[in-house]
Structures are given as structure tokens and as C-alpha cells.
Amino acid sequence: MITEDYVSFETAKLLKEKGFNEECISVYHDGELQLVSSLGIFCGEGYGEQIFTYTNSECQWSQIMISAPTLQMAMKWLREVHHYYIQVMLDSWACGGHLGYYVVIQKTDSDFEMMLQDAVDEVFYQTYEQACEDAIKYCLENLI
């Protein structure tokens, strides 16, 4: 079964700090990823840091939770809001002759282009998802 991949808790906090304010179907609650519908709660004002209220016949309580976007949602936000395009490419010789991924980050409103491996220690990634996660985190920490 194919499932969605979400940004890490650390990256979700960075996104919130940088102004990410989009509705998500999942949140981090106490650092744990949870689908909103599985919590039996509904959303209050705002999305970057969500306040949820749970009500039953005996009590009502609220908690603050951080939105947990998918990798693709975070990459789209970086592209549309901050004009950074993340391209993850497959290289058959990346990891000692094995398949691996590398990242190119482009600024869509200028001639800026860089390869992520020029900026960080790890040159190639074994999974597409880890390449995306690290590229998103790099953009948030260094470019925005």
C-alpha cells in the first residue's frame, strides 16, 4: 500500500516559523504524527499552529498542535510562496555504483541554481523521501 510521506517534526516546526499556514489533514501532537480525523477533533482559527477543541458530554479541552504537511505540499509551498524549486534526480552511480538521489535547488524568479551537495556534507541520498526532506530543511534554514 502506498502512503503519504510527511515532513519531520523538526521540519514542521521550521515551516511554522517561516510562515507556513496551510490546512493539513495531519498534525504533530507532542511530537507524534496523527491524522486529524483519528483524533476526533476539529480545527479552530489558523493552520500553522492549530488549536483543536474536543467536546463530549462531560468536558471540553483545547490543545495546540503543529500542522504536518506532506513532503510534496511543503515543496509546493516553497515553490509558490518563496520561489524555490526543488528537483530530486536519480543517479545510477551515486552511492558507490548503486542508485542514489541528488538535489538541485533553483530560484524560479532569477538565475540562481545550486546543487544541494555543494552546500551540505551528504552528497547523495538512498531514498527520494530523504532527499526531499533535507532539501526542504536546507531551504528553510539557509535560504528563507
Report on this structure.
The N and C termini lie far apart (35 Å). Helix 3 packs parallel to helix 4 (128-143). Strand 1 and strand 2 (32-35) form a beta hairpin. By secondary structure, this protein is α+β, with helices and mostly antiparallel strands. The protein folds into 2 domains: 21-67, no CATH class; 71-143. The strands form 2 sheets. Strands 2-1-5-4-3 form a 5-stranded antiparallel sheet. The longest helix has 16 residues, at 128-143. The chain is built from 4 helices and 8 strands, in the order αββαβββαβββα. It has helices at residues 9-17, 36-39, 71-82, 128-143; strands at residues 26-29, 32-35, 42-43, 49-55, 60-67, 84-95, 98-107, 113-115. Helices cover 28% and strands 35% of the residues.
